[in-house]
């Protein structure tokens, strides 16, 4: 079994990368969709599945009235 680093260490490693994306003038939606797209292609098994077989919907946008 692969030895996992502590989550806090992983998050600290991510911080400069996220800030670098912001330096490229990417906004929240841009960054979230890049990460989501990567996960959909490379780690689809990480997506949550509900008891009925459905999945949560990812939505980032204005509040729907």
Structure description:
The protein is built from 2 helices and no strands. The longest helix is centred in the first third of the chain and has 17 residues, at 7-23. The model has no long low-confidence stretch (mean pLDDT 95). The chain has helices at 7-23, 28-42. The protein starts with 6 loop residues before the first helix and ends in a 23-residue tail after the last helix. With 65 residues, it is mainly alpha-helical. 49% of the residues lie in helices and 0% in strands.
Produce the secondary structure layout.
Layout: H1 7-23, H2 28-42
What key attributes describe this structure?
mainly alpha
- What is the arithmetic mean of pLDDT? 95
Find the count of extended strands (DSSP E, 2+ residues): 0
SSE string, helices as H and strands as E? HH
Beta-strand proportion = under 5%
* Low-confidence residue ranges: none
Number of helix segments? 2
Globular, elongated, flat, extended or rod-shaped: what is the shape?
Answer: flat
SSE-based structural type: mainly alpha
The main sheet comes to:
none
Radius of gyration: 15 Å
Cα separation of the termini: 47 Å
Helix content: 40-55%
Structure, briefly:
With 65 residues, this protein is mostly helical.
